[in-house]
């Protein structure tokens, strides 16, 4: 007897003659490097970020260093947080980030930052993806820290946990934060 598995709206439906079984897919950890714009969290350092994207805008508050970039049309912001020069967090969001002032936009603009860049399994997701698209691509999240946030763990780490959080406004992805805390 031949079984057929079909993925539909986060459910695995198994079909065989005379019966249909539906089972919710397990919560899905991912296994790919947490990266965006050629930069990988917990791998690249600040000098490499600058080499790839330009100087951007540096913010250094009480030892918390970050660099911020906007795309050429000023519709999205890309930010990197550093710990001892190592990229610890990457944030991609629609709009101009709160750390940037109108006078910063020219210096923060990077022609190498494309907010349409994709992430997720097989690069299927992007800013603007729907909740259903995220669930279909990544499965249901391991955590929902707050309403409108889905968190996914990376199962491909050695010791320190790596994860990313997808932020929704309504039904659309408006922000992604890739986190690889250095401890």
Key structural traits:
single chain; 183 residues; mainly beta; seven-stranded antiparallel beta sheet; 12 strands
Topology overview:
Elements: E1 4-8, E2 11-16, E3 19-24, E4 35-36, E5 39-40, H1 46-53, E6 57-61, E7 64-70, E8 76-83, E9 86-94, H2 105-108, H3 131-138, E10 149-153, E11 163-169, E12 172-179
Antiparallel strand pairs: 1-2, 2-3, 4-5, 6-7, 7-8, 8-9, 9-12, 10-11, 11-12
How would you characterize the overall build of this protein?
The protein has one domain. 11% of the residues lie in helices and 38% in strands. The longest helix has 8 residues. About 9% of the residues have low confidence.
Provide the gyration radius in Å. Answer: 19 Å
> What's the helix count?
3
Helical residue percent band: 10-25%
Task: Indicate the low-confidence ranges by residue numbers.
Answer: 6-16, 18-23
Percentage of residues in strands: 35-45%
Strand order of the largest sheet: 6-7-8-9-12-11-10
**How far is the N terminus from the C terminus?**
52 Å
Number-wise, the strands total 12
The assembly state of the depicted protein chains is: single chain
Number of separate structural domains: 1
Shape: globular
Give the H and E element order. EEEEEHEEEEHHEEE
Mean pLDDT: 86
Largest sheet: 7 strands, antiparallel
Structural class estimated from helices and strands: mainly beta
């Amino acid at each position: 007897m031949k079984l057929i598995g079909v993925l539909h709206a986060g459910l695995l439906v198994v079909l065989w003659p005379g019966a249909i079984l539906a089972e919710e897919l397990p919560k899905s950890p991912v296994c790919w490097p947490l990266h965006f714009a050629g930069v990988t969290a917990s791998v690249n350092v600040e000098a490499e970020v600058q080499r790839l994207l330009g100087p951007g805008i540096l913010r250094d508050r009480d030892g918390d260093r970050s660099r911020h970039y906007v795309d050429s049309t000023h519709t999205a912001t890309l930010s990197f947080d550093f710990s001892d020069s190592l990229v610890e967090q990457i944030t991609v969001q629609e709009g101009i980030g709160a750390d940037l002032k109108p006078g910063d936009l020219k210096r923060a603009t990077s022609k190498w930052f494309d907010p349409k860049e994709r992430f997720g399994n097989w690069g299927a997701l992007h800013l603007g993806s729907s909740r259903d698209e995220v669930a279909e691509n990544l499965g249901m999240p391991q955590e929902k820290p707050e309403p409108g946030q889905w968190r996914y763990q990376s199962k491909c780490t050695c010791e320190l946990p790596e994860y990313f959080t997808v932020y929704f406004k309504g039904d659309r992805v408006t922000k992604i934060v890739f986190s690889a805390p250095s401890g």
